């Protein structure tokens, strides 16, 4: 599309809505909304191609779905082409971490949003490497936070997820960005929001975990020094 056929407006009785600014015909495309990141639901992974997110023609025979080349048994594909595309862009980073994510809890909801967060981080790596899609990560940080409304139990759940995702950044993503020691901190900051009103959440009782993360970082480069 070369022009916008709708305008964003606010109506007292409707709230935010889209209003056509010209005559439209049946079949016209008015809006294309591209997600920054997308992953299949963990409960549907056997039926949906992890790359094109289409329901496979083999859905009645899941054993015919193609698996990861490793294989990790967490992603399935409708074709060799999709497997290759997904490996090149995402799965080569995420593959070895999926066991850890899928073992988080018995609740599919927690696993699903953690997988989505991990995909957002992987996409952010491509943004930094100038291999991005047309969707900006800045759109992610404009979403409304409900952090103050969460229970302590929910916040503790988020802490667990945050630790896993931090490890994922340090182990799987940062090594693709740093060429020398001076780039380490800059690389980490690339995965953080740049808004001044972003909330900082303190992770309590994390000395042992933090020590493990520092050790993982030191494995990248024996000369790296991290002050905590």
UniProtKB/TrEMBL annotation:
A cellular component term, taken from the record's GO annotations: nucleus
Q: Which InterPro entries match?
A: SET-MYND_domain_protein, Znf_MYND
GO terms classed as biological process: methylation
* Secretion signal span: none
**Is Zinc among the key words of this record?**
yes
User: Taking every annotated instance into account, which residue ranges of this chain make up the domain MYND-type?
Assistant: 49-95
Record protein name field: MYND-type domain-containing protein
The organism is Adineta steineri
